[in-house]
Design brief:
213 residues, alpha+beta, Hypothetical Protein Pfu-838710-001, 8-stranded antiparallel barrel, 5 helices, 24% helix
Length: 213
Amino acid sequence: MSKEKIGIGEISKPRFEFRSFGQNFDNAHKRMARFSVPVPEKVWERHSDEIYILSRTNDINNTKIRDGKMDIKTYVQTIDGLEQWNPLMKGEFPIQASVLKDEVFPAFQVGMPALDKEVYTYDEFMEIINNHPDLQAVRVHKQRLGYMVNDTICEYGEVLINGARVVTINSESTEVEDIRKTMKDVGLEGVENINYLQAIKRVIGMINKPLAN
């Protein structure tokens, strides 16, 4: 059976991913750029400003807000050290209280705050988050450079987490073996796999652990 070919920005089967965060992945980035086939101009360089909602009691649901839209992904499994995440919910502001009650706060796995309105704006939602003892909103700016190596979608990025600069590098695909080959080719074997949720928690001190380097 032939494997599925995926393109950057295209919808595919749920993907597996290797990602790491640290202060320096210059050598791996240079090799990634050398090995890469040409990619669409729209992914050469991308910038985004996002809000991640971190929960002290949850490490399996990753919640972020970008351009007024909320996106929650949930952890599925790890195979050969690579993580698979699937979409859990997508929503826009203003957002119904029923969605917050039935989908959003259960994903945070924290106590349910009192909701006395039927619809909440972005600012009202963020006020709830900022007042909750187990939740923290974190501002994340991303500058991402896109590549394609061994049929895997790759990127190198400079990330500001509440203003603290870190770098990230990743490879993702529906095919585990293609990711493992890419990790070997660009020199990432033995580097710790750290997802965004874990990286942000380490930077803000919610997890007492350093990044990969």
